[in-house]
Specification:
The complex is a heterodimer of chains A (127) and B (704). Chain A is built from five helices and five strands. Chain A is α/β, with parallel strands linked by helices and 127 residues long. In chain A, helix 1 links the parallel strand 1 and strand 2. The two termini of chain B are 84 Å apart. Chain B has four domains: 3-76; 142-321, Beta-Lactamase, CATH 3.30.450; 324-465, Heat Shock Protein 90, CATH 3.30.565.10; 481-688, Ribonuclease H-like superfamily/Ribonuclease H (Nucleotidyltransferase, domain 5), CATH 3.30.420. Classes of the chains: A alpha/beta (127), B alpha+beta (704).
């Protein structure tokens, strides 16, 4: 299995720590940013295979970041998992409409998340 | 010369001429023989003529003149004030004294009649004024704001509380428009809704609804009642309102709950992820793995608790929104009306069964109108279909139309986040949330998309069954009640009696051994059934209710558990009756049950007792079907809730009122006469009716 590059965008260091650890353990190359400005800068670099993106970021919200990501041709096919602390159904629809592959409400089971990450990286788009 | 006078003079002249003429002819003949005698005769004839004419002149004055004067006086009498003084004394008109005396008697009679009429008018006016001032006092002391309005919303009545609630705005005043104070559309919507219900015979009072003040800042919980005249025309409406809290504060409570939920989800996600990492890493460490697993378990438990807390909080916020029981078909009809008003071309197709649900009828209507308008902007003239499925947790609604899901998703999301009204600004999402509904857009099963959401089930059972039976004019008060509640005496007219009409449900048909399970009664005053004054209690018979009886009246052992025993229920019922006349259908059966418990309860039912069955029998001694159903049908009375004690008591009360006129036509007008009729019919029927006759259902409608 070739190493896949995963970008984690979340402003809560503790969850970034856990996710980094788990993804690395699953054999992926992990990189993380913890605020919107850094994430925007990162859009200029080479795209990863998958992004785990928190919706509520300081500076810019995850939806806006996703929209800008999808506006760049080289980022268009990157798999995106949205993480959110808000449970409203209309937000889920919003995220999926903007081109997210999966919408996960916090808190979540890490085991389930890793399963979904691997499925997304290995297979076709599930949505 | 007038007619009477001409007649008089014709008679006088006719009477005066013959004697002088005869004398003059005689005088002429004797002229040659005896000139002196002839001269004497001629003079005598002349004097006779003069005398007769003098008598005629006197008659003219005394009879014709006085009669004309009397006629003039009579003509002015009806409008005159001191009539007695205007009519001359009989002695002044000697020839007409009898006539004048008769006129005096007539004048006295007229004066008396007018005096009585004036007194009655005054009493009525005083009564009206008294009633009005009592009504005014009630309205003034009401804690709720109250407006009486004409149909076009002009204020004709309001109270202090209304002024206080609305903050004494300058627009508030008699004759001003209510819609300068409160939003017009929710009120018009309610009026239409109540008219629709009224057309189905479901009464003229609506349910609670929300209405914002004109400033859009404050919300009021309102209730409307139509003011309907005897002839059935709607004259106006009465609006009750109380504060429902500030619109903004309500919104911020929800926001606060949302923010709180968002806030705890983050840290809890970190905690759980970290714990799961540790649990995985420490799998080989027997001492520490248990700790890690414990933290994972606790994090999961904490999550469940917080979810419940958030749901409960939302439920509390929701509970503050008054939802009404509405019929889906009515809502859709209102939506169609509004779409037609706005010139929106979509066709709304009702594919739903006839279901009731709980909703803010106005808000739901506006939501659907707004959605249809949005659909029409993108797919002009589209067909919008409404499906519904009623379940335990509510009514699942699906609004479907033909559009690609991806296309629809984008604008529906924007619509959900947008606002329906300019003021107060409330998100569409929030309006759904007030109904506990979360709309989801899904592909339709037969193409197109559907917006699916579930609304709460109706609260009242009647709405589930689909029909309410409200009295056409509920009798909630009668300000003149006090003078009428004297203890009944035998000569009281039946039309003025204060009665308690009651019905019992029992464990069986034997008054010696069976027991009461329900007592229901309603007060009747004269010809009015006071539906607001109901007595209804279940009774614990202290023994199992036979299944056959439960099938009959629907009362189960579980229903009567914890209810008062017969003696206690009887004490309360006795207090409800006071000294009113007791009325029941086949009263002997019910009275036997009551009498059996008198000693134990320490009360005596010694009021006069009337029996509608026997009274009906007295009207038509050959009538065979005197059971409640048959009698009600013949008298044109609709029984709601047959074989429930309240239903039967109300039906019996209506029957009693309907019988009053028929009894009066048979000369039975007083309580004493009615009691005697009952006694007589009881004697006759005891001899002639077999116990098997009557209502086959329970045999209770047979004679005692």
């Amino acid at each position: 299995m070739t190493a896949r590059r995963i970008l984690i965008v979340d402003d809560e260091p503790n969850i970034v720590l856990s996710l980094e650890f788990l993804m690395k353990k699953a054999g992926h190359v992990v990189e993380s940013v913890t605020d919107g400005a850094a994430a925007l800068d990162r859009l200029g670099g080479p795209p990863p295979d998958l992004v785990i993106l928190d919706v509520m970021l300081p500076g810019i919200d995850g939806f806006e970041l996703l929209r800008r990501m999808r506006a760049r041709p080289e980022w268009r096919d990157v798999r995106v998992i949205l993480l959110t602390a808000r449970g409203r159904a209309s937000e889920r629809e919003h995220g999926l409409a903007l081109g997210a592959d999966l919408y996960v409400t916090k808190p979540f089971s890490t085991r389930e998340l890793i399963r979904r990450v691997n499925a997304l990286l290995d297979g076709e788009r599930t949505r | 010369m007038s007619g009477p006078r001409r007649r008089l003079w014709a008679i006088v002249v006719a009477a005066a001429l013959p004697l002088p003429l005869a004398l003059w002819v005689l005088a002429h003949r004797r002229l040659a023989a005896d000139p002196d005698l002839a001269r004497l005769l001629a003079w005598a004839g002349f004097l006779g003529l003069l005398w007769t004419l003098a008598v005629g002149a006197r008659l003219d004055r005394e009879l014709v003149g006085r009669a004309r004067r009397l006629a003039e006086i009579l003509a002015t009498l009806p409008a005159a004030r001191r009539r007695r003084d205007r009519v001359p004394a009989p002695a002044a008109f000697p020839l007409l004294s009898d006539l004048v005396a008769a006129v005096h008697r007539l004048v006295d009679h007229l004066d008396e009649v007018e005096r009585r009429a004036a007194a009655a008018r005054e009493e009525a006016t005083r009564g009206l004024a008294r009633e009005r001032s009592r009504l005014a006092a009630v309205i003034r002391d009401l804690a709720d704001g109250l407006f009486g309005c004409t149909l076009d919303g002009r204020i004709v009545l309001y109270n202090e509380a209304a002024v206080r609630l609305l903050g004494a705005p300058p627009e508030l005043g008699l004759g001003h428009s209510l819609y300068a104070l409160l939003m017009r559309r929710p009120i018009l919507h309610q009026l239409r809704e109540i008219e629709r219900r009224r057309a189905r015979g479901e009464g003229t009072v609506g349910e609670d609804f929300l209405c914002a003040g004109r400033d859009g800042e404050r919300l009021f919980r309102c209730r409307l009642a139509l003011v309907v005249e005897e002839d059935g025309t709607t004259q106006g409406f009465v609006l009750l309102l109380r504060e429902a809290g500030a619109a903004l504060a309500e919104g911020s409570t929800r926001d606060f709950l949302d923010r709180l939920e968002t806030a705890w989800r983050g840290p809890l996600a970190s905690l759980r992820a970290a714990a799961e990492v540790l649990e995985g890493e420490l799998a080989d460490h027997p001492g520490l793995h248990g700790f890690a697993r414990g933290i994972v378990g606790d994090a999961e438990a904490l999550e469940a608790i917080l979810h419940r807390l958030a749901d409960t909080g939302r439920t509390y916020v929701l509970a503050r929104w008054p939802l009404q029981d509405v019929r889906l078909a009515d809502v859709l009809e209102a939506v169609r009306d509004r779409l037609a008003e706005r010139g929106v071309g979509v066709s709304l197709r009702d594919r739903a069964p006839d279901v009731w649900l709980a909703a803010d009828s106005f808000v739901l209507t506006e939501l659907l109108v707004s959605l249809c308008t949005e659909i029409d902007r993108r797919r002009p003239g589209a067909a919008v279909e409404v499906f519904a499925r009623a379940g335990e947790e509510g009514v699942a609604l699906e609004i479907g139309w033909d559009e690609a899901e991806g296309q629809a998703a984008a604008w529906v999301r924007a619509w959900l986040e947008g606002s329906l009204f300019a003021r107060p600004r409330v998100e569409v999402d929030e309006l759904f949330a007030r109904h506990g509904a979360r709309p989801v857009l899904m592909p339709g099963t037969t193409g197109g998309v559907v917006l699916a959401f579930t609304l709460p089930p109706p609260r009242a059972l009647h709405a589930r069954r689909g029909r309410t039976a409200l009295p056409p004019r509920p009798e909630f008060y009668d300000f003149d009640i006090a003078p009428r509640t004297r203890p009944p005496t035998a000569d009281r007219p039946l039309g003025e009696l204060a009665c308690v009409v009651f019905d019992l449900e029992t464990t069986g048909l034997d008054p010696e051994r069976d027991e009461i399970v329900q007592i229901a009664a309603v007060r009747v005053l004269g010809r009015r059934v006071l539906r607001g004054e109901l007595f209804d209690t279940l009774v614990d018979p202290g023994r199992p209710i036979p299944p056959a009886s439960t099938r009959f009246h629907g009362i189960t052992d579980e229903m009567v558990r914890g209810k008062p025993p017969p003696a206690v229920a009887l004490q309360r019922f006795h207090a409800f009756c006071g000294d009113r006349v007791l009325v029941a259908h086949n009263a002997a059966f019910d009275m036997a049950f009551l009498r059996r418990h008198e000693a134990e309860a320490g009360v005596r039912f010694d009021q006069p007792v009337l029996d509608t069955l026997l009274l009906a029998a007295a009207l038509d001694e050959r009538a065979e079907d005197l059971a409640l159903d048959g009698l009600a049908a013949r008298l044109g009375i609709d029984i709601q809730g047959r074989h429930t004690a309240p239903g039967d008591a109300l039906a019996t009360a209506e029957i009693l009122v309907a019988l009053l006129d028929l009894l009066a036509a048979r000369g039975i007008r007083t309580l004493g006469e009615a009691l005697e009729a009952c006694r007589r019919m009881a004697r006759i029927r005891r001899r002639t009716v077999t116990p098997a006759a009557g209502d086959a259902g329970d045999g209770r409608e047979t004679a005692p």
